[in-house]
Amino acid sequence: MSSSWFQDKAYRKQIEILRILSEYSKPVGSSIIRKELAKRGFFLSERAIRYHLKILEERGLVEGHERAGRMITGTGLEELSKALAYERMGSILTEYLALAYETTYAPNEDRGEVVTNVFLMDKKFEETALTIIRDLYDAKLLPSPYVKVLDEEEEYRELAVPHGKMAILTVCNLTVDGVLLKNGIPLILKYGGLVQFLRGKPVRFVDIISYEHVTIHPLEIFVYKQATTILRILENGSGLIPANMREIPAVAKDRVIEVIGALEERGWGGILAVGMPNEPILGIPVSMDRFGVSMVGGVTPAAAMKEAGIDVEVFAPHCLVDIKDMKKI
């Protein structure tokens, strides 16, 4: 099994199904598998689950027990063990760059696919959550003016929202990285952290985590620790917000500014700072002959929702969505 095969989206879903089956000593049906997958950030319909189970059964990785469901086989356990070994060797950085590379959004035409974050919550929080997202956009603390709302039991591509829940999809700033890459601009995603705002202006990073060699999403750590104070920024201009920083070759700076300008003409935002070559950005040094660009983190809406008392599950970044299937805020 090659590492490129492991990156295949369908295969990753099938491995997660194998992981679930391995935790049971009796046959498991698709409805239980669906609930367990949702807990792990895979919102599949039962139809999609049956499709993946059929493939796994054809490969001898699971076996059927009539209406009782499926069980993992010895061969399936071996496959799961190999996959988990590759997973431990991987990193969040590789996953992020792969998603950015798959972006097809073209600012000049305002079409194509974008990387999105998925926020899952109880339906009763819809109005409050969307108000927070609108406030963030008005404050230029959101990468894009687009959002997609999925109601309970609604399906979109392979996303299926559980009963009693709703999902809000927002555009992740990895989309901006993808647009830069498609314009021939190489970049290195360096750090995720918290940026301090004073009087409405970003001042400095107060905490950072390197993206290299980590196996968890750095910014989600700050969200679940409730270390942000985004609502205070919206109220009085001062507080802490999740952000990240990437480095770009100095020779590409003019082109980067041009691409960012094209995005801003379409209503995009979320750029906190564009540094000078060889000079620190928001207090963080950059490598020789490079400059830094800092953007608001994609988890920012979820962090603000948690501050407002909303119990929200965060899956950021999560999937690609066609921009034409989203609505402007």
CATH superfamily of the largest domain: mj0159-like
Indicate the structural class: alpha+beta
Shape: globular
Say how many strands there are: 14
Number of helices: 12
* Mean pLDDT score: 89
Which parts are unreliable, with pLDDT below 50 for 5 consecutive residues or more? 1-7
* C-alpha end-to-end distance: 43 Å
Strand order of the largest sheet: 13-3-7-4-14
How big is the Rg? 21 Å
- Going by CATH, the architecture of the largest domain would be 2-Layer Sandwich
Briefly, what CATH class of the largest domain?
A: Alpha Beta
What fold name goes in the CATH topology slot of the largest domain? Alpha-Beta Plaits
The largest pleated sheet is described as: 5 strands, antiparallel
Provide the succession of SSEs: HHHHEEHHEHEEEEHEEHHEHEEHEE
Helix content: 25-40%
- The total number of structural domains is 2
Notes on the protein architecture:
- The protein is of the alpha+beta class.
- The chain is 38% helix and 26% strand.
- It has two domains: 3-89, Arc Repressor Mutant, subunit A, CATH 1.10.10; 90-329, mj0159-like (Alpha-Beta Plaits, 2-Layer Sandwich).
- It has twelve helices and 14 strands.
- The chain has a five-stranded antiparallel beta sheet with strand order 13-3-7-4-14. A five-stranded antiparallel beta sheet has the order 9-8-10-12-11.
- A hairpin with a 5-residue loop joins β1 and β2 (70-72).
- α2 crosses α4 (46-58) and α6 (92-102) packs across α8.
- The longest helix has 16 residues, at 74-89.
- The radius of gyration is 21 Å and the shape is globular.
